[in-house]
Amino acid sequence: MRTQNYSKKRQAIYELLLSTKEHPTAEWIYNTLKDEYADLSLGTVYRNLKLLEKNGMIKSVAVVNGCERYDALTSPHSHFVCTKCSRVIDVFYRDEVPDFIRNMHIDGADRVDYFSLIYYGTCNNCE
Amino acid sequence: MRTQNYSKKRQAIYELLLSTKEHPTAEWIYNTLKDEYADLSLGTVYRNLKLLEKNGMIKSVAVVNGCERYDALTSPHSHFVCTKCSRVIDVFYRDEVPDFIRNMHIDGADRVDYFSLIYYGTCNNCE
DNA sequence: AACAATAAAGATAATAATTATTGATTTGTT
DNA sequence: AACAAATCAATAATTATTATCTTTATTGTT
User: Fold this and answer.
1) Cα angle: B124, vertex B65, A115; to 5 degrees
2) pLDDT score at A94
């Protein structure tokens, strides 16, 4: 039987995403993995990110400076984006918040599937 | 005296944004205005959007399908994005929501300046 | 283990949105 | 009117991403 994720490189991309809290870009993943996989190509990274996203194994959490940022942590949480260094940090909300937000009436919407809550500001590293 | 916004075209871009709830892209603005301003160029639209944004007169509210969407309504509110037709709809939350969110503790953040809350789903038009 | 079928990859070209450059034009001030 | 600064159009350049196409890797079956 053919499993969903049998290729070495796809597996490496997924595991790298699982192991980091960087919420990396395709470029970052490519640069990180090309030491181990010398023949890796950027197109492969993009292709597999799209594929993993479609399978629900990873999520695109934000577009920062025109670059898509990915996360293998798919449980509901939000993010903080540093407007100086573009760092993306996980934010876990208390249970009440999603309910509060979820009950919002939206005029013109037929069905709400999900929402994205992103904070912007300055991170610790940027003082 | 030279006011901040004295050029005809910049004024037209700003007023168009004020008059619509489309949350348009640069392209949309360009196409809408080029009837009246035959010699308008797309670069001018981009340049002035950046400028108006820097002046705080407009806001970038989301990136939908890789396109930046702008809004002249700068009072705090959030948005609904239709994942089928890319329509962007204003969502006005109760006053408590910002407070509730603002009190959230974010580990790694030094200062939170603002946040963005975006809902995704299907709009009325897309049934 | 070998083979054929299929999936995945690399290399490269193509898109698409946005930004930068440059030289001409408009605007406000003297 | 003349001058300087701001703005613009046109165009070229960037940058992130996607598509194409040929080759290589992986899998299930014999």
Assistant:
1) 60
2) 79
